[in-house]
Predict the 3D structure of the following.
Amino acid sequence: MGAKKKDEIVKENVRKGITVILCCFNSEKRLPVTLEHLNRQAFSWHFDWEIIVVDNASTDKTAQAATDIWKSFKSSVPFKIVNEPAPGLSHARLRGVREANFSYIIFCDDDNWLNNNYLDLAFGIMEENSMVAVLGGQSVAAFETEPPAWFNQYSKAYAVGRQYEHSGDVTGRYEKLWGAGCIYRKEALDFLYENGFAHLLSDRTGTKVISGGDHELCMALHLAGYRLYYDDRLLFTHFMTAGRLRWEWYLNFQKNGSYFSILFDPYHKVVKIEKGLRGYLKETALYEIYISLLKLNKLKPTLTYFFLAPRPASETKHFEVLYEKYRILGLLNFFFSYRQLLYKVRRSAWLNVKGTS
Protein backbone atom coordinates (compact mmCIF):
# COMPACT_ATOMS: atom_id res chain seq x y z
CA MET A 1 0.00 0.00 0.00
CA GLY A 2 1.34 3.43 -0.94
CA ALA A 3 1.78 6.42 1.32
CA LYS A 4 -1.34 8.20 2.43
CA LYS A 5 -1.60 11.81 1.36
CA LYS A 6 -1.62 14.49 4.02
CA ASP A 7 -5.18 15.56 3.24
CA GLU A 8 -6.34 11.94 3.59
CA ILE A 9 -5.13 11.77 7.18
CA VAL A 10 -7.54 14.40 8.57
CA LYS A 11 -10.17 12.35 10.36
CA GLU A 12 -13.75 13.43 10.82
CA ASN A 13 -13.56 12.72 14.57
CA VAL A 14 -10.63 15.15 15.12
CA ARG A 15 -12.18 18.39 16.30
CA LYS A 16 -10.68 21.85 16.65
CA GLY A 17 -9.16 22.15 20.08
CA ILE A 18 -6.22 21.08 22.21
CA THR A 19 -5.24 17.82 23.86
CA VAL A 20 -2.72 18.23 26.67
CA ILE A 21 -0.71 15.02 27.06
CA LEU A 22 1.05 14.49 30.39
CA CYS A 23 3.52 11.59 30.16
CA CYS A 24 4.34 10.34 33.64
CA PHE A 25 6.78 8.00 35.30
CA ASN A 26 6.50 8.07 39.10
CA SER A 27 5.10 11.61 38.94
CA GLU A 28 2.93 11.50 42.06
CA LYS A 29 4.85 14.26 43.87
CA ARG A 30 5.28 16.55 40.84
CA LEU A 31 1.71 16.51 39.54
CA PRO A 32 -0.07 18.83 42.01
CA VAL A 33 1.58 22.06 40.82
CA THR A 34 1.58 21.00 37.15
CA LEU A 35 -2.14 20.25 37.17
CA GLU A 36 -2.88 23.40 39.15
CA HIS A 37 -1.31 25.49 36.37
CA LEU A 38 -3.41 23.68 33.77
CA ASN A 39 -6.53 24.39 35.82
CA ARG A 40 -5.69 28.12 35.76
CA GLN A 41 -5.76 28.44 31.96
CA ALA A 42 -7.63 31.49 30.63
CA PHE A 43 -8.98 31.90 27.11
CA SER A 44 -9.80 34.53 24.52
CA TRP A 45 -10.26 31.97 21.73
CA HIS A 46 -13.23 29.61 21.99
CA PHE A 47 -12.26 25.96 21.74
CA ASP A 48 -12.58 22.68 23.62
CA TRP A 49 -9.68 20.95 25.30
CA GLU A 50 -8.85 17.86 27.30
CA ILE A 51 -6.10 16.34 29.43
CA ILE A 52 -4.70 12.85 28.95
CA VAL A 53 -2.32 11.48 31.56
CA VAL A 54 -0.19 8.63 30.23
CA ASP A 55 1.06 6.45 33.08
CA ASN A 56 4.30 5.01 31.68
CA ALA A 57 4.95 1.99 33.92
CA SER A 58 4.96 3.98 37.16
CA THR A 59 5.55 2.16 40.42
CA ASP A 60 4.04 4.85 42.66
CA LYS A 61 0.44 6.16 42.84
CA THR A 62 0.70 8.48 39.84
CA ALA A 63 -2.66 7.53 38.31
CA GLN A 64 -4.62 7.83 41.55
CA ALA A 65 -2.92 11.08 42.51
CA ALA A 66 -3.67 12.63 39.11
CA THR A 67 -7.33 11.62 39.31
CA ASP A 68 -7.77 12.92 42.87
CA ILE A 69 -6.03 16.23 42.14
CA TRP A 70 -8.09 16.99 39.04
CA LYS A 71 -11.35 16.04 40.78
CA SER A 72 -10.52 18.48 43.57
CA PHE A 73 -10.61 21.36 41.06
CA LYS A 74 -14.20 20.48 40.07
CA SER A 75 -13.28 21.26 36.48
CA SER A 76 -15.51 20.38 33.52
CA VAL A 77 -12.48 19.79 31.27
CA PRO A 78 -12.37 16.13 30.17
CA PHE A 79 -9.62 14.22 31.97
CA LYS A 80 -8.54 10.62 31.62
CA ILE A 81 -5.73 8.23 32.52
CA VAL A 82 -4.28 5.77 30.03
CA ASN A 83 -1.57 3.20 30.64
CA GLU A 84 1.48 2.61 28.43
CA PRO A 85 3.43 -0.43 29.67
CA ALA A 86 6.30 -0.06 27.15
CA PRO A 87 8.94 2.05 28.94
CA GLY A 88 10.18 5.18 27.22
CA LEU A 89 8.92 8.71 26.66
CA SER A 90 8.53 8.16 22.91
CA HIS A 91 6.20 5.19 23.54
CA ALA A 92 4.20 7.21 26.06
CA ARG A 93 3.80 10.17 23.71
CA LEU A 94 2.69 7.93 20.86
CA ARG A 95 0.04 6.38 23.09
CA GLY A 96 -1.16 9.86 24.02
CA VAL A 97 -1.38 10.90 20.36
CA ARG A 98 -3.50 7.86 19.56
CA GLU A 99 -5.90 8.73 22.37
CA ALA A 100 -6.13 12.46 21.51
CA ASN A 101 -9.41 13.88 20.22
CA PHE A 102 -8.36 17.38 19.19
CA SER A 103 -6.46 19.05 16.36
CA TYR A 104 -3.51 20.30 18.40
CA ILE A 105 -1.44 18.44 20.98
CA ILE A 106 0.68 19.86 23.78
CA PHE A 107 3.29 17.63 25.38
CA CYS A 108 3.37 18.94 28.92
CA ASP A 109 5.97 17.15 31.03
CA ASP A 110 5.17 16.52 34.69
CA ASP A 111 7.57 19.33 35.65
CA ASN A 112 6.22 21.94 33.19
CA TRP A 113 4.13 24.72 34.72
CA LEU A 114 2.37 26.39 31.80
CA ASN A 115 1.53 30.10 32.05
CA ASN A 116 -2.19 30.75 32.24
CA ASN A 117 -2.38 31.96 28.61
CA TYR A 118 -0.28 29.12 27.18
CA LEU A 119 -3.07 27.08 25.61
CA ASP A 120 -4.82 30.17 24.28
CA LEU A 121 -1.67 31.50 22.60
CA ALA A 122 -0.79 28.06 21.21
CA PHE A 123 -4.21 27.64 19.65
CA GLY A 124 -4.11 31.07 18.02
CA ILE A 125 -0.62 30.64 16.58
CA MET A 126 -1.39 27.21 15.12
CA GLU A 127 -4.68 28.44 13.65
CA GLU A 128 -2.88 31.28 11.87
CA ASN A 129 -0.01 29.11 10.50
CA SER A 130 -1.49 26.13 8.68
CA MET A 131 1.81 24.51 7.61
CA VAL A 132 3.39 24.69 11.05
CA ALA A 133 3.53 21.22 12.58
CA VAL A 134 5.69 22.00 15.62
CA LEU A 135 5.55 25.06 17.85
CA GLY A 136 7.79 25.83 20.82
CA GLY A 137 8.28 28.57 23.37
CA GLN A 138 10.65 29.60 26.12
CA SER A 139 10.97 28.68 29.77
CA VAL A 140 12.28 29.91 33.09
CA ALA A 141 13.56 27.62 35.82
CA ALA A 142 12.27 26.94 39.31
CA PHE A 143 14.50 24.97 41.65
CA GLU A 144 13.90 22.42 44.39
CA THR A 145 17.23 23.42 45.93
CA GLU A 146 19.74 26.22 45.39
CA PRO A 147 21.05 25.87 41.80
CA PRO A 148 24.78 25.32 41.27
CA ALA A 149 26.91 28.20 40.03
CA TRP A 150 27.37 26.51 36.67
CA PHE A 151 23.65 26.06 35.87
CA ASN A 152 23.13 29.17 33.72
CA GLN A 153 26.08 28.23 31.52
CA TYR A 154 24.50 24.89 30.65
CA SER A 155 20.80 25.77 31.02
CA LYS A 156 19.90 24.99 27.38
CA ALA A 157 20.58 21.32 28.06
CA TYR A 158 17.81 21.52 30.67
CA ALA A 159 15.31 23.13 28.25
CA VAL A 160 15.57 26.42 30.11
CA GLY A 161 15.77 29.85 28.50
CA ARG A 162 15.01 31.15 25.01
CA GLN A 163 15.37 28.57 22.26
CA TYR A 164 16.02 31.15 19.53
CA GLU A 165 16.91 34.83 19.45
CA HIS A 166 13.77 35.84 17.56
CA SER A 167 10.25 34.47 17.16
CA GLY A 168 9.28 33.05 13.78
CA ASP A 169 9.82 30.14 11.40
CA VAL A 170 12.89 28.14 12.45
CA THR A 171 12.61 25.31 9.93
CA GLY A 172 15.99 24.10 8.74
CA ARG A 173 18.10 25.99 11.29
CA TYR A 174 18.69 23.26 13.83
CA GLU A 175 15.58 21.16 13.16
CA LYS A 176 14.88 21.15 16.86
CA LEU A 177 12.41 22.44 19.41
CA TRP A 178 12.27 21.22 23.00
CA GLY A 179 9.75 18.51 23.71
CA ALA A 180 8.86 20.27 26.98
CA GLY A 181 5.76 22.37 26.41
CA CYS A 182 5.86 21.65 22.67
CA ILE A 183 2.75 21.94 20.50
CA TYR A 184 2.12 19.61 17.56
CA ARG A 185 -0.46 19.53 14.80
CA LYS A 186 -2.23 16.18 15.21
CA GLU A 187 -2.79 15.90 11.47
CA ALA A 188 1.00 15.99 10.94
CA LEU A 189 1.68 13.38 13.63
CA ASP A 190 -1.04 11.13 12.21
CA PHE A 191 0.53 11.49 8.78
CA LEU A 192 3.88 10.29 10.13
CA TYR A 193 2.61 7.39 12.19
CA GLU A 194 0.06 6.14 9.66
CA ASN A 195 2.80 6.08 7.03
CA GLY A 196 5.07 3.89 9.15
CA PHE A 197 7.18 6.31 11.16
CA ALA A 198 8.83 4.58 14.11
CA HIS A 199 11.17 6.26 16.59
CA LEU A 200 14.78 5.16 16.54
CA LEU A 201 15.16 6.67 20.03
CA SER A 202 13.06 5.55 22.97
CA ASP A 203 13.88 8.88 24.67
CA ARG A 204 13.83 9.14 28.46
CA THR A 205 13.15 5.71 29.97
CA GLY A 206 12.32 5.59 33.65
CA THR A 207 15.23 7.16 35.49
CA LYS A 208 17.69 6.71 32.59
CA VAL A 209 19.14 10.02 31.40
CA ILE A 210 18.40 9.70 27.67
CA SER A 211 16.89 12.34 25.40
CA GLY A 212 16.47 13.16 21.74
CA GLY A 213 12.98 11.90 20.89
CA ASP A 214 11.77 15.49 20.49
CA HIS A 215 14.68 16.29 18.14
CA GLU A 216 13.97 13.15 16.10
CA LEU A 217 10.29 14.04 15.75
CA CYS A 218 11.16 17.56 14.58
CA MET A 219 13.57 16.20 11.99
CA ALA A 220 11.01 13.72 10.67
CA LEU A 221 8.27 16.35 10.38
CA HIS A 222 10.66 18.68 8.57
CA LEU A 223 11.57 15.90 6.12
CA ALA A 224 7.85 15.23 5.64
CA GLY A 225 7.45 18.81 4.41
CA TYR A 226 6.14 20.58 7.52
CA ARG A 227 7.37 23.75 9.22
CA LEU A 228 8.76 24.46 12.71
CA TYR A 229 7.94 27.68 14.54
CA TYR A 230 9.18 29.40 17.70
CA ASP A 231 7.28 32.06 19.63
CA ASP A 232 8.72 33.50 22.84
CA ARG A 233 5.28 34.65 24.00
CA LEU A 234 4.76 31.01 24.96
CA LEU A 235 6.24 30.79 28.45
CA PHE A 236 6.35 28.04 31.02
CA THR A 237 8.28 27.33 34.20
CA HIS A 238 10.50 24.26 34.16
CA PHE A 239 10.89 22.76 37.63
CA MET A 240 14.35 21.38 38.39
CA THR A 241 14.57 18.62 40.98
CA ALA A 242 17.63 18.41 43.20
CA GLY A 243 18.85 15.26 41.46
CA ARG A 244 19.05 16.98 38.07
CA LEU A 245 21.23 19.74 39.53
CA ARG A 246 24.13 17.39 40.23
CA TRP A 247 27.10 17.63 37.87
CA GLU A 248 27.03 13.84 37.52
CA TRP A 249 23.49 14.06 36.10
CA TYR A 250 24.59 16.61 33.52
CA LEU A 251 27.62 14.51 32.52
CA ASN A 252 25.46 11.40 32.06
CA PHE A 253 23.09 13.48 29.95
CA GLN A 254 25.98 14.56 27.69
CA LYS A 255 27.48 11.07 27.50
CA ASN A 256 24.18 9.47 26.50
CA GLY A 257 23.46 12.26 24.04
CA SER A 258 26.84 11.70 22.40
CA TYR A 259 26.44 7.92 22.38
CA PHE A 260 23.00 8.01 20.74
CA SER A 261 23.82 10.92 18.40
CA ILE A 262 24.37 8.33 15.67
CA LEU A 263 20.61 7.71 15.59
CA PHE A 264 20.18 11.17 14.07
CA ASP A 265 22.57 10.31 11.22
CA PRO A 266 19.88 8.60 9.10
CA TYR A 267 17.89 11.85 9.04
CA HIS A 268 20.94 13.91 8.09
CA LYS A 269 21.93 11.41 5.39
CA VAL A 270 18.48 10.89 3.93
CA VAL A 271 19.67 12.21 0.57
CA LYS A 272 22.44 10.04 -0.94
CA ILE A 273 25.27 12.38 -1.96
CA GLU A 274 27.71 10.07 -3.75
CA LYS A 275 27.40 6.85 -5.74
CA GLY A 276 29.77 3.95 -6.15
CA LEU A 277 32.18 2.51 -3.60
CA ARG A 278 33.02 5.92 -2.11
CA GLY A 279 29.34 6.64 -1.54
CA TYR A 280 28.85 3.21 0.02
CA LEU A 281 31.74 3.68 2.45
CA LYS A 282 30.48 7.09 3.54
CA GLU A 283 27.32 5.42 4.76
CA THR A 284 29.06 3.01 7.10
CA ALA A 285 29.85 3.17 10.80
CA LEU A 286 33.51 2.63 9.91
CA TYR A 287 33.60 5.89 7.96
CA GLU A 288 31.96 7.79 10.83
CA ILE A 289 34.51 6.36 13.28
CA TYR A 290 37.23 7.59 10.92
CA ILE A 291 35.71 11.09 10.91
CA SER A 292 35.54 11.15 14.72
CA LEU A 293 39.17 10.05 14.96
CA LEU A 294 40.17 12.86 12.59
CA LYS A 295 38.35 15.35 14.81
CA LEU A 296 40.05 13.98 17.91
CA ASN A 297 43.41 14.25 16.23
CA LYS A 298 42.69 17.87 15.36
CA LEU A 299 41.75 18.60 18.97
CA LYS A 300 45.07 17.12 20.14
CA PRO A 301 43.69 16.13 23.54
CA THR A 302 45.89 15.26 26.50
CA LEU A 303 45.48 11.95 28.31
CA THR A 304 43.62 13.87 31.02
CA TYR A 305 40.87 14.70 28.53
CA PHE A 306 40.48 11.04 27.65
CA PHE A 307 40.40 9.55 31.12
CA LEU A 308 39.00 12.30 33.34
CA ALA A 309 35.49 13.70 32.97
CA PRO A 310 35.15 17.44 32.33
CA ARG A 311 34.25 19.76 35.19
CA PRO A 312 32.03 22.86 35.05
CA ALA A 313 35.06 25.11 34.46
CA SER A 314 36.58 22.84 31.78
CA GLU A 315 37.36 24.37 28.42
CA THR A 316 35.13 23.59 25.42
CA LYS A 317 37.71 21.21 23.94
CA HIS A 318 37.28 18.84 26.87
CA PHE A 319 33.54 18.49 26.10
CA GLU A 320 34.27 18.03 22.39
CA VAL A 321 36.58 15.14 23.25
CA LEU A 322 33.86 13.60 25.43
CA TYR A 323 31.38 13.88 22.55
CA GLU A 324 33.61 12.18 19.99
CA LYS A 325 34.69 9.49 22.46
CA TYR A 326 31.11 8.46 23.28
CA ARG A 327 30.00 8.83 19.67
CA ILE A 328 32.65 6.27 18.70
CA LEU A 329 31.36 3.92 21.39
CA GLY A 330 27.86 4.30 19.97
CA LEU A 331 29.12 3.62 16.45
CA LEU A 332 30.84 0.46 17.63
CA ASN A 333 27.62 -0.72 19.26
CA PHE A 334 25.58 -0.09 16.07
CA PHE A 335 28.45 -1.06 13.76
CA PHE A 336 26.61 -3.77 11.82
CA SER A 337 23.15 -2.16 11.84
CA TYR A 338 24.21 1.40 10.93
CA ARG A 339 23.34 1.14 7.23
CA GLN A 340 20.04 -0.60 8.00
CA LEU A 341 19.02 2.38 10.13
CA LEU A 342 19.86 4.70 7.26
CA TYR A 343 17.81 2.70 4.77
CA LYS A 344 14.90 2.49 7.20
CA VAL A 345 14.54 6.27 7.10
CA ARG A 346 15.47 6.71 3.44
CA ARG A 347 12.75 4.29 2.29
CA SER A 348 10.04 5.72 4.54
CA ALA A 349 6.64 6.40 3.00
CA TRP A 350 6.32 9.64 4.97
CA LEU A 351 9.45 11.13 3.45
CA ASN A 352 9.06 14.26 1.28
CA VAL A 353 12.60 15.54 0.65
CA LYS A 354 11.51 17.82 -2.18
CA GLY A 355 9.12 19.57 0.17
CA THR A 356 11.79 20.54 2.69
CA SER A 357 13.89 23.69 2.84
Q: What stands out?
A: The domain at 17-245 is CATH 3.90.550.10 (Spore Coat Polysaccharide Biosynthesis Protein SpsA; Chain A). Confidence is low (pLDDT under 50) at residues 7-12. The first strand starts at residue 15 and ends at 24.
